[in-house]
## 1
Amino acid sequence: MRKLLNFENNIPTFLSSASAVGKEEHLGPLGNKFDIYDGSDLYGMNTFEKAEAEMNRTALNLALKKAGLQPSQIDILLAGDLDNQCTATSSGLYSFGIPYIGLYSACSTCTEALLLLSLLISKTNTACGAVVTSSHNSAAERQFRTPVEYGGQRTPTAQWTATASGAFIMNTGGKVGITEGMFGKIVDGTVSDASNMGAAMARSAFDTLYTYFKISGHAPSDFDFIVTGDLGHIGSEILCEMLAKEVSGAEKIHTDCGKLIYDKSKKDVHGGGSGCGCSASVLASHFLPMLERGEIKDILFLSTGALMSPGSVLQGENILGITPLIHIKGLE
Amino acid sequence: MRKLLNFENNIPTFLSSASAVGKEEHLGPLGNKFDIYDGSDLYGMNTFEKAEAEMNRTALNLALKKAGLQPSQIDILLAGDLDNQCTATSSGLYSFGIPYIGLYSACSTCTEALLLLSLLISKTNTACGAVVTSSHNSAAERQFRTPVEYGGQRTPTAQWTATASGAFIMNTGGKVGITEGMFGKIVDGTVSDASNMGAAMARSAFDTLYTYFKISGHAPSDFDFIVTGDLGHIGSEILCEMLAKEVSGAEKIHTDCGKLIYDKSKKDVHGGGSGCGCSASVLASHFLPMLERGEIKDILFLSTGALMSPGSVLQGENILGITPLIHIKGLE
């Protein structure tokens, strides 16, 4: 039986958040909300992988600056990305010298990390911690599919891995906090097409939401938004169909970071955005500021992950989905 | 400043542990202690990656059987491996249906996972959890270096990735527990040779041990053993030189799972064993049984991780090391 983790006794709150993105994200509907962008997607580096590492460094530096803190004042860093062996995280962030918990949960890593950090802050002597997650379109394309220079035709269901990094600093006593959360269960997406990840992840997002409403005592009407990570257009449609049948009302307040980050009419993003940096940057620069300004009060935030590798897909394995959940609340 | 996490108020304890290994591990000095081995290294599957997944499934099944529990009685699973995007974990373990926290911390994942599970059990409503970590020699060789069929000559410093999986079930009230722990800090190994990982990880192991003895109030004489994960022969020598100078006495009780798992005189393992499954299987089948039988009372256990990928090495990045720590204690 899945368990809710409750932090009401000592609520972990956001001290600051920051985002660093690439060209397409800057040109999208949320473009002006992101803190920093580099139109070349390279952040001054000579490879896409090093660019992603530098984007992470930039985002964490900015979050620290906004919080008025030095790296030595951060007790713990939780982070991860999509690169093989998560090197954009380790090489980008090691120089801060912050004790580190390395995570891999594909594009769901942002929510997984915020939930674990909430646990550390709420229940242990951890006073202050950081979360950083990222993805880079060109690094992901050549790792998971084909190098962008190859010019391969993308299928209509394919999602566009966001070039983005989101960073968060949390402690206690702030205006917006995480009051509860729940880890995900790995659910067989029953899809083996790496260009149709939204469909593969929709079932796990439904599993988590259905379980949450069953055990939490909350109803969809308690929330302003249910925000999934990067189901994109196709996965969101599948999720909402399932929600309408089983958790009526939830589909009406559903939105998705992969749908919000790009303008579908202007850019051939097909299925919408994806990547560990997609939900992280949209939370950091869109939803958290709305909560801080009091425009919204309560959201459920669920980054969605597709657990697969090029090797596992070639060997005929289905794509597995995972969806952790956090309840983010305005506390004033 | 690094913080110790203390679990003395509600000590998480081991309910069971199990290991599944390959041919070379079975032929090694600890061969008869491992629960299950497959002399073909394939565990009935047709690829090494699927074999690793099946080995994970086997190890967790056996740990559950020893504990007398069904998967539905496990609240949370923390796991990871070395494969790109940790697919040996996700595809091997999803069918258990246990809520999942995906980790990536290279070969240090076992200690990282046990520390996080201790936190969940000690401080939250998590009653019972599982940890599984694995590696497979043939899957790792073709991913990180060259396929074994290629017959490449290994350098004298190269370590032998263990074909092994270790599984642990924890709750409270048992005989052997985790009383405290500390996460690692990413330390530049100042080495960029992927065939010399022990040397790259030694500095991070020293950093964690030095910090632990500085802040914990403990001295090396409080412990039977200081067990590192897989520094192997070369990394262990470097660590012990540093310890002898700075934490005198610690070097005398140091041992390393990568040194214990193979007989150097019989097998050309060169630098010794490595891989997420190395320290996990040696803890599960060698050190935990010694603690349970009361032959030893206190150990510090530190799996060591080399944070790098083939891509990061080709792009000229140094190998970064990380070493979390747990204090495992006989409670009777």
Note: DSSP finds ten helices and 18 strands in chain B.
## 2
Amino acid sequence: MRKIIRYNNVFIQDTASTAGQKEAEGPLATSFDLIDTDAYFGKPTFEKGESEMVRITVNLLLSKLNKKPEDIDAVLCGDLVNQCASSSFGVKTFGIPHIGIYGACSTCAEGLALGGILIDNQSFKTVISLASSHFCTAERQYRFPLEYGNQRTPTAQNTVTGCGAFMLSDQPAVARLESSLFGIISDNGVTDQNNMGAAMATAAVDTISRYFYESNETIDDFDLIATGDLGYEGHAIATELLAHRGIKTDERFTDCGMLIYDTKRQDMHAGGSGCGCMATVLAGHFFRQIRENRLKRIMLIGTGALLNPNTVLQGESIPSVAHLITIRTEK
Amino acid sequence: MRKIIRYNNVFIQDTASTAGQKEAEGPLATSFDLIDTDAYFGKPTFEKGESEMVRITVNLLLSKLNKKPEDIDAVLCGDLVNQCASSSFGVKTFGIPHIGIYGACSTCAEGLALGGILIDNQSFKTVISLASSHFCTAERQYRFPLEYGNQRTPTAQNTVTGCGAFMLSDQPAVARLESSLFGIISDNGVTDQNNMGAAMATAAVDTISRYFYESNETIDDFDLIATGDLGYEGHAIATELLAHRGIKTDERFTDCGMLIYDTKRQDMHAGGSGCGCMATVLAGHFFRQIRENRLKRIMLIGTGALLNPNTVLQGESIPSVAHLITIRTEK
């Protein structure tokens, strides 16, 4: 089996996105619904701030669609903070049935793919899927205290401060969730946690290859194919590996981590990363273009590095996974 | 909507369970497929050991059913270690599409409930759902270094070293996954991380009440109703709260955390906890009774405390969630 899942009637009703200061200084600034330049989002700690960002984003999404929490049958959510606390604390006041997921930075794609199945199976009528990350909570959890001001390597990526949320239901809307393909864990032996693009590139290539192999489609069937957060380093590797497999790519093949910052001007090294990277770029930038009919059919590949700081300290390489979804307009 | 999900054709083909020393000293010892009294499971660290336990359990399950990894369409898995590393590292060599979930100690129920939807939607033909926990990885991550030998409070629970795995498909088998109900996050203000039973009791009561309210069933419709790991403290609270709501319980209402240890003899305070608690008790003890037709219809309620050590340090209370499944024999 392990086939591409084809959804019958799953639509993205609308999206909401919240982002931080660095994202607001980048080229996609106007695509986000809400920007807060306060990394604390008005709270006393970064962690509480990230949860507040999640809470605000859910409220934005509900408000856009004039929905109340009780109209939502489930929220699928995840983030990078230990025990996915940012998202669960962020949604805890809504009283919506909670389905916690963890796919590292592939969480956005995993949630949409799973959410689509819940809707298509008519188990649920309306679900919200969301993913969140925060530079300050990730940096001090995965790397160093912020106060330390450590230097970063050229292949390092910058965790996006952002949350993207999506409302799915079977009611026709501008964007149809068309298909998905869950990823197989790939471990290519990369041990450098400052080069997660290289660790994740093989997972992305594997899932993209499986999709094209089964579907007989090519990049020409899409207006855009975007990985989640391979960054410049991982994108270059993935492009080369796809070429080796005879899979043609061109400028339509891009990466959310390359798009979210003006990398050189903002000194962002290899680009953006984090669950919030694909989530905000899809919810904001891409969804706007879908709405304006400038993108008609797109493929997104969420890429997740399944490490934690201890696995690195214990000498493990970095396993990765990439979940794929395709979206097309109904126009 | 938010209704009880009723599965059409989802069956638990078989289960596998692996457990550690303390579990082997308890009353359910003979129900586990494999016991390893080495907390390292032959590996150099506890974390690598937990992953090895997961890997062994998947192999046990595949072997029982004479299946190969390529016969499995997806593995839903989760654990308590940061970034769910124990389970993802444990399954990474199988090449099975990976769906990471996080529900703290409700993970076993969450995975079965979600896996059932994937099968019923015919998105997948065969999936494995598993949950794992390990006393030594949890203790040093959540509490103190083991070497410190700290004393525990009377309401503290002991994290089960164990992994339980389940194979689901639409092929008729001894046990049918009948229905599920996803939990709503409950936060009753408990801040004591050594009293997670009290924190989780309200979540369990909420989900059980919702189930009975919608279904018009009572405890008399079940041979057994077991929460995941409320322990003695949480079980007493839940029993009282259910009575306040007019929901009758009797000796058929129990808790996996109360069953897995001989609490007094083993000095286990309020009982067992951890993702592996419900997973191993269901996969071992309960499933054996289902197979022997001594249990015909059971309700399991996975209970998860959605904290991490930082949320406690930052003064947050402990939100909890409880996911419910019902299973019945086909005999």
Note: The first strand of chain B starts at residue 5 and ends at 6.
